Amino acid sequence: MKRFNDTCPDCESRSSDTASVGENRRSFIKRAGGTALAVGALPLFAHAGGTGPSSTSAAETSVGRFYQSLTDAQRKVVCLPFDHQLRSKISANWHVTEPTIGELFDDQQRANILEIVRDVTTEDGYQRLLQQMEDDASGIDAYSCAVFGDPDSGKFQWELTGRHLTLRADGNSVANRAFGGPLIYGHSEEDPKHNLFHYQTKKANEVFHALDAPQAKVALIDKPPKESDVLLRGKGGQFPGIRVGDLSDDQKELVEQTLKVILAPYRSEDVDEAMTIVKEGGGLDRLHMAFYREGDLDNDQTWDIWRVEGPTFVWHFRGAPHVHAYINIGIKQA
Predict the structure, then answer these.
(1) Spatial distance between the Cα atoms of 226 and 328, rounded to a whole number of angstroms
(2) The predicted structure's pLDDT at residue 333
(3) Could you give the CA distance from residue 40 to residue 46 in angstroms, rounded to a whole number?
(4) Which end of the chain has fewer CB atoms at under 10 Å, N or C?
(5) Residue 323 has what pLDDT?
(6) Cβ–Cβ < 8 Å for 327, 274
(7) Spatial contact of 94 and 164, defined as CB atoms under 8 Å apart
(8) Residue 332: how many CB atoms within 10 A of its CB?
(9) Which of 173, 161, 185, 184 is closest to 81 using CA atoms?
(10) From CA 294, how far away is CA 224, in angstroms rounded?
(11) In 3D, which of 165, 158, 68, 143 has the Cα closest to residue 98?
(12) Please, is 252 exposed, middle or buried when counting C-beta atoms within 10 Å of its C-beta (0-12, 13-18, 19+)?
């Protein structure tokens, strides 16, 4: 259901509606009840100390097989130097290479790409992203991928891009940066009841509704920043919203639960590294949460645009008119 006439600045074209996708995937998401599946019993910071994935992690091993399978003609298209400027580009809708997966790769290579996506996510995250790609672009064949560097001999990064999605696997080639760099996810469905990621907004808003009136006044802001404004500000930065360190213990627990929910789609190695980086930036207390009046989809004060930010962590969630979420977790370089 279309709710806004607004044009979406990062979606130059809208994909046509697609036919129904596999029943197994729809059933999986339905069973999840609109929320991420098991997010673990331990506090997130119990995992701090993780060094991230390695070149022999499951996804990176899959990247190696994919790289070895490429023909000379394919390598000319998808293989780029590790420091190529395209590795730093972020957008909610772009293609790192012009040919799509469906146009460039054979059946086995496309299966290998799906394997990489599965290996950088949890089962719930994998199913959600498959559904999102189907809904937004008729499936993963409409997306593109590239390999920066050489998985056989040095630093490398595999990257998948397309409408509402950027994923990376890099074997920790990028120092002090979770996920190997900024990630993006989203969904074109504008009705919150049917958006695959609205459950994250509901969880974040549990924090807001636990605030008292003075706290809510600090946390609630009229207009959000530009959605792609996710540069790391470091320990000297100033951040919007309410400081988590100023909250009560039970309110802090809700913030930590929110972090667990939004990180749940991704593999544990990346999540552990992300929390290590957050700890380096001062931990949970140095994070801020901001909620924005703009874009309240049902005028229900469930704020659909929100942001979690600290010295080493930015998570900008724009839920109106549909979801674009930008993640950047890392240690700012001097």
Answers:
(1) 14
(2) 81
(3) 11
(4) C
(5) 98
(6) no
(7) no
(8) 15
(9) 173
(10) 7
(11) 143
(12) middle
List the end-to-end C-alpha distance of the chain, in Å, as a whole number: 46
Q: Which residues contact 116 (CB under 8 A, 6 or more apart)?
A: 59, 62, 63, 66, 158, 160, 169
Q: State the amino acid at position 138 in one-letter form.
A: S
Residue 225 — pLDDT band, cuts 50, 70, 90? very high
Task: List 305's β-bridge partners, or say none.
Answer: 292, 318
Q: Rounded CA gap, 210 and 227, in Å?
A: 25
pLDDT digits (tens, 9 = 90+) for 131-151: 999 999 999 999 999 999 999
CA Rg value for the chain: 19
Q: What share of the chain is helix, strand, coil (3-state, %, to 5)?
A: 40, 15, 45
d(CA 318, CA 320): 6
Tens digits of per-residue pLDDT, 253-303? 999 999 999 999 999 999 999 999 999 999 999 999 999 999 999 999 999
pLDDT tens, position by position, 3-55: 333 446 657 543 333 334 445 555 556 555 555 555 666 676 666 666 789 99
